[in-house]
Design goal:
mainly alpha, Four Helix Bundle (Hemerythrin (Met), subunit A)
């Protein structure tokens, strides 16, 4: 005797599996990049929001505990974004581009400065945060000049 599963249960199971997979990735510390989404979208949704607080807070007159918490979270998000940046995301052409030595060189520079920003935020060292932020600006600008001149 075979039991047929109603279609709604099959769909519900598939949706649940997708959500659990996404949550597992998020809990593992990897930024979630849904299949088919391009790397540009990842930069806008993940990397840009992680760099902005570092740049904004680096030169604040005075940083509060809430500011430091925001800087720590932003830097942690930026550090977590490095593995997706290194892989180029999900789109095959972007993954192929990411294998180039130049892309990997920029990714290593990004990783070093993201980690420097995280260490500075954790120590509440505003000068070191500013230095890491300035270096990130140069790294981001250099990579964009080489790979995406239309990026802002």
């Amino acid at each position: 005797m075979t039991v047929k599963t109603p279609a709604i249960l099959t769909i519900a199971f598939a949706v649940t599996l997708t959500v659990v997979s996404a949550m597992s990735i998020a809990l593992a510390g990897e930024p979630y990049l849904p299949a088919g989404n391009n790397f540009h979208g990842f930069m806008i949704r993940t990397v840009d929001p992680a760099t902005q607080p570092i740049w904004e807070l680096s030169y604040a007159d005075k940083m509060t505990d809430a500011d430091w918490a925001r800087a720590q979270q932003a830097a942690a998000n930026l550090v977590r974004s490095v593995s997706t940046t290194a892989s180029g995301g999900n789109v095959p052409a972007e993954q192929a581009r990411a294998k180039s030595p130049k892309w990997q060189g920029w990714t290593r520079k990004m990783a070093a400065e993201a980690n420097a920003a995280k260490a500075a935020a954790d120590k509440k060292d505003q000068m070191a945060l500013a230095t890491a932020g300035d270096n990130l600006l140069e790294v981001c600008g250099g990579c964009h000049m080489e790979f995406d001149q239309n990026a802002k």
